[in-house]
Amino acid sequence: MILRVDARPLAVGTAVALVAACASYGAVEQRTTQGPTAEQFWTVRMVSMNGRAPTFEERRHWDNDIDARISRYLNEHPEAANSLQVSTFRFHRQAAVGMSKDQVLILLGQPDRMTTDATEIEKLARKFWPSIKDAANEAWMYPGGWRLYFMGSKLVDITQHLPGSLE
User: Fold this and answer.
1) Which pLDDT tens digit goes with each residue over 14-57?
2) How far apart are CA 67 and CA 91, in angstroms?
3) pLDDT in tens, 98-139
4) What are phi and psi of 160, to 5 degrees?
5) Would the CA dihedral through 51, 57, 60, 64 be positive or negative?
6) Band of the pLDDT at 88, cuts 50, 70, 90?
7) Which of 43, 45, 57, 86 matches a 20 to 30 Å C-alpha distance to 95?
8) DSSP percent split of the chain into helix, strand, coil, nearest 5
9) Cα(21)–Cα(163) distance, rounded to whole angstroms?
């Protein structure tokens, strides 16, 4: 007899443990051109709402829904379908510098907070402010310490800050 085990709860638990372990040893502070994936955010939201990992059926519905939203966007914006970020958007479903606000909203949903205040953006950018200050006029804050910076409608920078246990 073969015993089947659903590895998703273990994977989610492992991811949470890794984030907690990293946080206990020190801060995560990075600047990157590619941010979180839609699936990471969706999974975290599902776990926080339901106290469990998403079921196969929930994941299938989410996959179908996001595929439909991405396809609809690409049909309405043919220039995006021919851009360099199309594979990052369509297949990896990952926020990346160069994407539009609409693409980020499709992938990650509404941010926890937004700001256009330069003083607040400076505090969010931390040590990366000298590189970001002339390039961004808006910041969106997401869970996991993710900060996405926009100039007009384009994503121009991404940082992440998770404070360590000593901060």
Assistant:
1) 455 445 544 445 688 999 999 999 999 999 999 999 999 999 99
2) 9
3) 999 999 999 999 999 999 999 999 999 999 999 999 999 999
4) -140, 135
5) negative
6) very high
7) 57
8) 55, 20, 25
9) 12
Sign of the alpha-carbon dihedral angle for 145, 28, 91, 156: positive
- Sheet of strand 138-142: strand arrangement: 28-32, 154-162, 146-151, 138-142, 113-115
> Which residue type sits at 114?
M
Round to whole Å and give the CA distance between 85 and 78.
13
Q: Left (φ > 0), alpha (ψ -120 to 50) or beta: where does 25 sit?
A: alpha
Buried b (16+ CB within 10 A) or exposed e, 115-134: beeeeebeebbeebeeebee
Residue 152 CA, distance from chain mean position: 19
Tokens matching residue 64: 């179908």
Pick the residue with more confidence: 107 or 167? 107
* Contact in structure between 147 and 160 (CB atoms under 8 Å): yes
Spatial separation of the C-alpha atoms in residues 48 and 61, rounded to whole Å:
18
Q: Which helix (H) or strand (E) holds 157?
A: strand 154-162
Please give the Cα distance from 157 to 94 (Å, whole number). 14
